[in-house]
Amino acid sequence: MEVGQEYEIKNFTHRKFSMKHIAVMTSGGDAPGMNACLRAVVRAAHNNKLKIYGVLNGYEGLIDNQINKLTPREVGNIIQKGGSILKTSRSKRFLQEKFRALAIKNLTKKDINSLIVIGGEGSIKGAAMIAKESNLNVLGLPATIDRDLPLVGPTIGFDTAVNTALQAIDRIRDTASTSNTVHIVEVMGRHCGWISLYAGISGGAEAVILEEFDTNIKKLTKHIKDQRTSGKTGCILIVSEGAYNAQGGDGLIKELNKISNFDLRITKLGHIQRGGNPSAVDRVLASRLGASAVDKLLQGSNKFVVAQPKDKIELIHFDKLVAKYQSDMKDYYELIFKLA
After folding, report:
1. Catalytic residue among 30, 64, 111, 146
2. Active site residue 226
């Protein structure tokens, strides 16, 4: 493939451009596997003889012109590392049109005509804004531990976050089994309970409390008492941080204390779920999506998220991802109680 070869863009602008320069950035909350994804983008671009730039500090760096060339060597030995070597940020300035215009100007001054944004819901919305307000070709790659993007299937970082939560739950289970204590484990997932569900099923939790489902505290109390009657000496409840009006585990404790005398303990896993070495599942997903994004840009794709909903790479238009996340969790939720 020759540098400067013209590609017909089969998108909504129907323009031609010379596919030479790509920028890549990580944005929003960090997720394990972002580095693996970045590595794949850079090396795939290099193999196609394209110049690749990295944007430091997410959209804030884009506004401040923190845009530097990247080489394959600079992304060596990072596939196994959590976090992002490009850093991330949550930018309030980017919500203003004048700062988005500045960000776009900074890219075009370097003759960058394509942008890959690695991040979650807010980051993808930012990518959609750039695509709408510029002549850049923009693709998003779903990286969020919450798995809160519709239609895309697994997201980079989700599997690692679940396994991190599961390791903690297994350890708590050891101590819970030696006493008559009710252990409440709060996991991340502000508006989406997939981590809670996966960790709850795989950790054998007695119940999971989510924002998506109403919890009858009297029925939950009876459920715990029935578990004890059956001979169980410990109990683990998984609660999403977004449950009980975002009070999470603290809100659950308040409600249980009103009608029971359980000996309650709470463990908040917090940002430990964002860190650590990405799992093999996340490394493979990140590598596939990163390399595919470069291929899709070369084919002229624009205004899409590159995803793997069913083990096959697919393109999902930005417009389909800005709607409120909806997913059928009912089967997973009911399974928790069937197996408790």
Report:
1. 146
2. no
